[in-house]
Design a protein that fits this description.
Blueprint: E1 4-10, E2 18-23, E3 30-36, E4 39-45, E5 51-57, H1 59-71, E6 81-85, H2 86-109
Antiparallel strand pairs: 1-4, 2-3, 3-6, 4-5
């Protein structure tokens, strides 16, 4: 079902967006932090010219903003900070695990 005049509005209850992790099937293997509003109101007009209004928060609000960006021709990598590919994330995870293991070994030695 196609919708006309799809709009998204930040909630009046929230002033600033929050940064959170995102990835996308359009850009496989890459992840980054993107600022999104925690609460949004999405309005649209359906094919029968009926107005639709959805209030979303949390992860659903993030999804709506992400998908509407696609409709407007944007990808999350344009907004992402700390953009990393999957290999980089795996390397960081391994380093973190190694650091945790070394700290455990030091703690046991004391």
């Amino acid at each position: 079902m196609a919708y006309k005049h799809l709009l998204i509005h930040k909630s009046s209850r929230q002033k600033d967006p929050n940064e959170g992790p995102e990835g996308c099937l359009s850009v496989p293997g890459y992840f980054g932090d993107v600022e999104r509003y925690e609460k949004v109101t999405v309005t649209a007009i359906d094919p029968n010219n009926k107005k639709l209004r959805i209030e979303a928060e949390g992860f659903l609000a993030r999804i709506f903003q992400h998908e509407i960006d696609h409709l407007e021709g944007h990808l999350f990598i344009e907004k992402a900070v700390n953009l990393k590919n999957k290999l980089t994330l795996l390397k960081l995870l391994r380093r973190k695990r190694l650091k945790m293991w070394l700290m455990q070994q030091l703690a046991m030695a004391m």
